[in-house]
Amino acid sequence: MNKLNHVAFIMDGNGRWGKKKKGNRNSGHYAGVQTVKKVVEISIKLKIPVATFYVFSTENWKRPKTEINFLFNLINSYFKSELDNVIKNGIKINIIGELSGLPSKLKSILKETVKKTKKNKKILVNLALNYGSKRELISAFKKIKLKKITEKNLNNYLYTKKIPDPDILIRTGGKKRLSNFMLWQLAYTELYFLDKLWPDFKEKDLKKVLNHYLKIKRNFGGI
Questions:
Q1: Which of 2, 60, 120, 180 is catalytic?
Q2: Domain extents for the chain?
Q3: What is the pTM of this model?
Q4: Pairwise CA distance, residues 52 & 64, whole Å
Q5: pLDDT tens by residue, the chain, 223 residues
Q6: So what's the architecture of 6-215 in CATH?
Q7: Cβ-based neighbours of 129, under 8 Å, separated by 6 or more
Q8: Catalytic residue among 12, 94, 165, 167
Q9: Is 12 tagged catalytic?
């Protein structure tokens, strides 16, 4: 049976869900946050050590400013109101991406959240914010000397250093692409593309993917 250390999620379809159900994209982002909360709770129950959520990419800055501001305010409000519960539930929050490019108010609450949850051990939740895999790799190459580039050394300069690569990537929303997400780390990850929009993603969907993953044979280039 395959060992499960890390599940990553590309949470596609929030905006489309909001337009379809409520007539506006922002409603979908709000619903999407509630789905993240539920998935983290399920992951704790299933004893998944690490979960990573692709929240906001370096390319998402091309979206309307009003939508970006709503999303950032939503994240800020969530951690302001839920931080005590996050701590109580043993959730360790980690941010991967470039915090420097985010609004100061959001950076402040994220840094506080990371600091106050750093000793929690039930699950590590990575939030990929202002994240782009190409930028991550360029940043890593700049930090190490060219003569010393090895796979191990490069891993030590990525945002995900000391975190196991994802065993599973789940992308909702019907698209079959990686969208500049963890391109290095996903080299041997099992990929699952679902038609469901992210707010409609349920416990049964996660369990179905996990059950399939646990039964398959992973060769990692071997036989």
A1: 60
A2: 6-215
A3: 0.95
A4: 25
A5: 688 999 999 999 999 999 999 999 999 999 999 999 999 999 999 999 999 999 999 999 999 999 999 999 999 999 999 999 999 999 999 999 999 889 999 999 999 999 999 999 999 999 999 999 999 999 999 888 766 788 888 999 999 999 999 999 999 999 999 999 999 999 999 999 999 999 999 999 999 999 999 999 877 777 6
A6: 3-Layer(aba) Sandwich (3.40)
A7: 55, 56, 75, 95, 96, 97, 99, 102, 110
A8: 12
A9: yes
